[in-house]
Hints:
By secondary structure, this protein is an alpha+beta fold. It folds into 2 domains: 105 residues; 93 residues, Sandwich (Immunoglobulin-like). Helices cover 30% and strands 19% of the residues. Strands 3, 6, 7 and 8 form a 4-stranded antiparallel sheet that branches. The chain has a 4-stranded antiparallel sheet with strand order 4-5-9-10, with no helix packed on it. Strands 1-2 form a two-stranded antiparallel ribbon. Strand 9 and strand 10 form a beta hairpin. The longest helix has 22 residues.
Amino acid sequence: MAKSTVEKSSVRLKTVLDVLAEGTWSEQSLNAGEILAEAIVRVPLDPRESELLSGGIPRGHKNLTTETAKLVKAGWLVKGRSGWTITDDGLRATVAFAKPDEFVTALTEGTPVPADTPLPTAPVKKAAARKPAAKKAPAVEKAPVAKAAAAKAPAAKAAPKKAAAPKATAAVEKLEQPSAVAIAGDFNTILGAPEDWAPQYDEVQMKFNSRRKVWTLTATLPAGFYTYKIALNRSWDENYGAFGARDGANHELNHDGGKVTFTYDHATRDIVTA
């Protein structure tokens, strides 16, 4: 019998922690969008979960995003400006509740991770088997002619040294920033722009923080549900939606009213609100 939608969604939450745990072993950093996408690859959406909602996001993807709040509440996941991080307790949870049904029960009932649970260890890579050293062939006496030829051979010129290849980190350090970044959405007129969904106006442009290398815009919005995208260089030619996807689904904001700060990171093409 196929798992219910609720069961599959809960299993994906465990997969989110598994992906984050694997990232700590491999020292590979993934953004929130990549983590959620990998969880869905491992536990695929069913037909109902694949239905697109008004913002263009699959129902299952949105539900998973919302339910990750349970991992935060359990103290197993921290959502920060620089990305998602699994806590030590979260790492232990992948050991203590290794089976999906145990994990779901523990998360639902608020079962604490046993204090004596060890941190998981990285998979041990098998060392390549060493080949026995080759036996040395018996020395062969060289012919006199060969010795003479060797003596007369001119010394080989040393090959000129090649310039060292530039370090890969240089490309990261020199990330070219756009000339302008706008929040184009259905609240632009509230910000003072003549119309909504128009990235060309000054009122919707973000400010660049050269120290943090991010773009920000702080606005005061009434309580409500808003949708928007990030548009570069005052046009729609290059735009980013949910999870930093180019031409992706709209970002969504359920706002209680008051000030909100949008922060866009061009390195990940994603945005966070606070």
